[in-house]
Design brief:
Elements lengths: L8 E5 L5 H16 L3 E3 L1 H4 L6 H10 L5 E6 L1 H8 L14 H4 L7 E5 L20 E2 L3 H15 L15 H4 L9 H10 L4 H19 L8 H10 L2 H17 L8 H11 L17 H20 L3 H9 L2 E4 L5 E4 L9 H10 L7 H8 L8 H17 L26 H4 L4 H11 L4 H9 L2 H9 L10 H4 L2 H4 L2
Parallel strand pairs: 1-2, 1-3, 3-4, 4-5
Antiparallel strand pairs: 6-7
Helix pairs in contact: 8-9, 8-11, 9-12, 10-13, 10-15, 11-13, 12-13, 13-17, 14-19
Length: 482
Amino acid sequence: MSASTEHPKVFISYSWTDVEHEQFVLDFATALRNHGVDAILDKWDLKPGQDKYVFMESMVVDAGVLKVLVVCDRKYQEKANARAGGVGTESQIISQELYGKVHQTKFIPVVCEYDDEGQPCLPVFMKGLIYVDVSTDEKYGEGLDQLLRQIYEQPFHQKPKLGGAPAFVTNGGTSYVKELGAAVRAIQDGKPNRQGLEALFIKAVLTELEKLYVTPEGSDYHEGVYQAIMATKGLRDQVADYVDAVAAFSGDDPTSVGPFIKLMEGIGSHFGPPLSDGSYYPGWGDFYSFFGLEAMLLQTAALLRHERWKTLKRLFNAIYVIRGSQRELTTGNFTAFNPELVSIDEHRNQRLKLNRGSLSADMLKERCSSDKTTFNELMEADVLLALKVLANGESDKWWQEHWAPKTAVYAGYGNKHPVFMRASDEAVRSGIHLAIGVSSGPELQAKLEKSEKLLSYINRVAMRTHGFFNIYEATNMAALVR
């Protein structure tokens, strides 16, 4: 049946047990008709001179009758099990022979009585069917709702639509780790072993990245870097699923991003020049740099989606141990994961004459999907990370420690994002303040006034292609500084 069917037709079979039961069936049928169901009942539709058994059989086999509702009480059960039939009240019993003539899904047992052992009064040939219980006043309403949903084919639990094959399947499995499922289930169920399973997932991601890494070589070294990055699409989607599970099921618990920080440190351990001897290419670490950038945006977007302000603060204030420009271990903040991607944004862009404002932004956009993290969410995260640096106030290291939002090349003047558009709400505004490390709007205003050079730089980022970007407009700053 189509969900648009206006008046689905059903036939009600029951036993003439006594006057009280017949009245129950009449009231039940009336309730169905009041809800738009064309209920067929012998007392309404059987005409003088018609054969009762023929009428009943015609209703059961009629293709226009969507369902046969079998009202089961003790008497009905007894007569059906005895295969009574022929004349009188027995003619209303659906025998096993008639039951076998049509598809069993056409029959819905409606139980209105239980036997002495507490079992529903169902005929033997219906014992395996899922029934609707209207046996008491307390159960009647819920049973009627359940029945109407079945008749109209609108179940309470809707079966999800089929999605497309995941990228890690369609690309030959080159960027898939099997440890994700166990980690996500443990996070969702609050299992005590979740930290161990998360650690296994993080380790597997880092191992897979090492397998996918391609050493740059030749005059067109950008091609190898680009193809290696694109091969991580499935892995990127798994990270998106992981960080969303953490954000959704951990509450606003700052410790929940601990494993993610380990992931970022593992990625950052590959920054800087190569440890081995040989030719040095400017884009040596761009494979890891791009994935690190994307992962930071995904985690920020997930926490923003669920408004985990304290956890965002932890992510932004964390100290990351990574490899520096001289191959030594060093420490840095989240801005270390937004470096210049020379092999992509300069070398590839120029060699292929693509003339793109930011090829890395194009790649971030292409790798997004609506069922993971959307590009708009990624842009919102990018802007929040830039705002966090501005809220620190300009320092002597502003050129090294800044966050220029790469995705801003897609944002025109006046572009705003949902979280920031709600900044006039005190709870949201206070949450953003907490995340970026200010106590009030006036304090944020004072910090911004000290970030003039950095602010000017960020606002110039998107001028190359899509117009002027203004972070004040993008973040609804007028509301944030109240």
